[in-house]
Amino acid sequence: MREQNSNFNIDKYLSVCEQLGQEPDPQKMPLTESDFPDEVQVAFFMFNLLSDVWEGMSGSYMGKDWSGCDLLFSTYEIEDKRNTLYFMKAYERILMNYRFEEAERKRKEDERKSKSGGKNFTHNVKG
Q1: Which backbone phi and psi does 47 adopt, to 5 degrees?
Q2: pLDDT per residue over 32-82, tens digit each?
């Protein structure tokens, strides 16, 4: 599952296929929210209404503030609260793992750069 603001969407996939002269494969197309069952779409909607929590010093994403969840369920008259909450928490877990992996990848990349003395410049010197 991809974040909503994922860098690779259906339009980009179709553009890449066109540039490569390939027929688009529906099995390889990125998913959109509308590809999921209604119950999951409701969970995405409710999840996006919750506010994000960020750690102040490091700016790390800590997840969602779940304290307003019951009010949202009441306001939007969600009947199947248990399953909606299940899908919301499952999505949060996937999102948190994705963000952790991205932060870890970036940390390792920065570590490699600092060990190599920062930016590497290559000059072709002929003599």
Answers
A1: -60, -40
A2: 888 999 999 999 999 999 999 998 888 788 889 999 999 999 999 999 999
The per-residue pLDDT for 26 is 86
**For residues 101-121, average pLDDT:** 81
* Number of residues written out for the chain: 127
Question: Encoding tokens for residue 113?
Answer: 């750069």
- For residue 12, the 8-state DSSP code is H
Q: What is the largest CA-CA distance in the chain?
A: 78
Tokens for 73?
Answer: 């369920």
3-state DSSP assignment of residue 14: helix
Contact 40, 83 (CB under 8 A): no
Query: 46 and 73 in contact (C-beta within 8 Å)?
Result: yes
The pairing of strands 52-54 and 61-64 is antiparallel
Closest CA to 81 of 71, 91, 94, 67: 71
Q: Which residues contact 46 (CB under 8 A, 6 or more apart)?
A: 69, 72, 73, 76, 78, 84, 88
